[in-house]
Design brief:
With about 300 residues, the chain is an alpha/beta fold. It has a single domain (about 5-25, about 30-305), classed as Ribokinase (UDP-N-acetylmuramoyl-L-alanine:D-glutamate ligase, 3-Layer(aba) Sandwich), CATH 3.40.1190. Helices cover about 35% and strands about 20% of the residues. The strands form 3 sheets. It has an 8-stranded mixed sheet with strand order 4-1-9-10-11-12-13-14, with helices on both faces. The chain has a 4-stranded mixed sheet with strand order 3-2-7-8. Strands 5-6 form a two-stranded parallel sheet. Strand 9, helix 6 (about 145-160) and strand 10 (about 165) form a beta-alpha-beta unit. Helix 1 crosses helix 9 (about 255-270) and helix 7 (about 190-195) packs parallel to helix 8. It is globular, with a radius of gyration of 18 Å.
């Protein structure tokens, strides 16, 4: 791993997505289409960054099974370094099951991330001290166990590394609360922002209050995504709102991960926060229009093509 790489830690999973054009029939089957692909927040962020040309190392855990091998091979094909990821014998690879309606919106989901929390221990990460020493930035999702999170922040402090975190879901977002004062950036949606700071987010104004509150709690760059309303952001020096880009919605899965990755990429290249969040919104719009969890044609040129000025 060279000093130019980003260290990404967290979930890699198989995403199984069912799309239906009809109303969901409770208690029986509903006609539709079912597809599977590599997913997981950390893995998605890693692939987005790799497609933008950023060298990345991904630390995750998969089972010693066909889905795990599929995930690792797909990562290698995108030039993601997975040599420090764990292959856990006797364990099933993480999985995410989503049901989407005809508009691509999530109806319900189930995730099984046990192999991540059980296998990525604080001790395992501490033994990878050299990776932290050589990294430019750490990006993590909240699927890690509390001891693993403590190890990440301890190592980041030791080497003065900025840490960016995707809260992932309202279930695991509270695990980040003890570490808010050490976060460089976080990108919660409305519900996750409430889980982090206690402010109920229902619109642009309450989103800005939540972003300001997170900055008051120590986060340097707080971004709250608001779905069709766009996003709001805050730092100690500025704040603002970026509207969503109007586009066809095919599948919402992975849009937040694309947004996080594009903002991380922008900040790594010293772009101002006001431009970084607009590139993030552009990445989200590109992903919204894809069946794939990560847009296969993602590039910096495409991000700028639809950038909101």
């Amino acid at each position: 791993m060279s000093a130019s790489q980003v260290l990404i830690i967290g979930a890699a999973s198989i995403d199984i997505k069912g799309h239906t054009e009809q109303a969901i029939r409770i208690g029986t089957s509903t006609p539709g289409s079912i597809r599977s692909s590599a997913g997981g927040v950390a893995r998605n962020v890693a692939e987005n960054l790799a497609r933008l040309g950023e060298p990345v190392t991904l630390i995750t855990a998969v089972g010693d099974d066909e889905p795990g091998r599929r995930i690792l091979q797909a990562a290698r094909e995108c030039e993601i370094d997975v040599s420090h990821s764990i292959v856990a014998p006797g364990r099933a690879t993480a999985a995410y099951l989503a049901i989407l309606d005809g508009s691509g919106h999530l109806v319900m989901s189930i995730d099984d991330m046990a192999v991540i929390r059980d296998s990525l221990s604080g001790e395992y990460l501490s033994r990878r001290r050299a990776l932290f020493q050589q990294a430019r930035m750490v990006v993590l999702d909240a699927n890690l166990s509390p001891p693993a999170l403590r190890a990440v922040f301890r190592l980041a402090r030791a080497f003065s590394l900025p840490v960016c975190a995707d809260p992932t879901s309202t279930t695991v977002a509270p695990l980040l609360r003890p570490h808010l004062s050490e976060l460089y950036m976080t990108t919660p949606n409305a519900a996750e922002a409430e889980a982090l700071c206690g402010i109920r987010v229902t619109d642009r104004d309450s989103g800005l209050r939540a972003a300001h509150a997170l900055v008051g709690m120590g986060v340097e760059v707080a971004i709250v995504t608001l779905g069709a309303t766009g996003l709001v952001y805050s730092t100690s020096h500025e704040s603002g709102h970026v509207p969503a880009i109007e586009c066809e919605v095919v599948d919402l899965t992975g849009t937040g991960d694309a947004l996080t990755a594009a903002i991380v990429f922008s900040l790594l290249h010293d772009l101002p926060v006001s431009e970084a969040v607009r590139l993030g919104m552009s990445a989200a719009a590109l992903t919204l229009q894809c069946r794939e969890t990560v847009c296969p044609t993602l590039s910096l040129e495409r991000l700028y093509d639809q950038l909101i000025i």
